[in-house]
Specification:
Elements: E1 5-13, E2 22-25, H1 43-55, E3 79-86, E4 89-96, E5 102-107, E6 113-115, H2 117-127, H3 145-148
Antiparallel strand pairs: 1-2, 1-3, 3-4, 4-5, 5-6
Amino acid sequence: MSRTVRFLRWRVTNAGVFGERSVEIGPLGAGVNVISGPNECGKSTMVRALRAALFERFSLDGKKTTRPLQPHGTKLAPLVEVDFLVDDVEHRLTKQLLVRPFARLSVGGSARQLEDDAVDERLRELFYTHKRGKQGTSIDDMGLGGLLWVEQD
């Protein structure tokens, strides 16, 4: 069974070069969207935060995955909000990482929300990913999505 997924926007707060600021990308168009800007403006931080929200366990304290999102020298909790459609049904994901971590997912504007481990399980179902390891998600865990997820080294 295939699904159509479309990202609408995402917002990142307390992450990387942004410090305590919030930065939002969106609204995103239905086609290809290009994120551009000068070096060190936060493009990679935004993409890493999106990856962490979609593919990492909300409670993970991964040295290579979630920990680099925390602004250097702070104890801030990175917060990621993502609005997306799956087969034209609206989803709103909110994940706070590292400090008092939590995850919430609302579907279709419903007042009912999934929380924490139930969110991570539902994201695995939606994106056809495999259960993540204790050290975080590898490209192999990401299923077909791993083929499309290219990171800058």
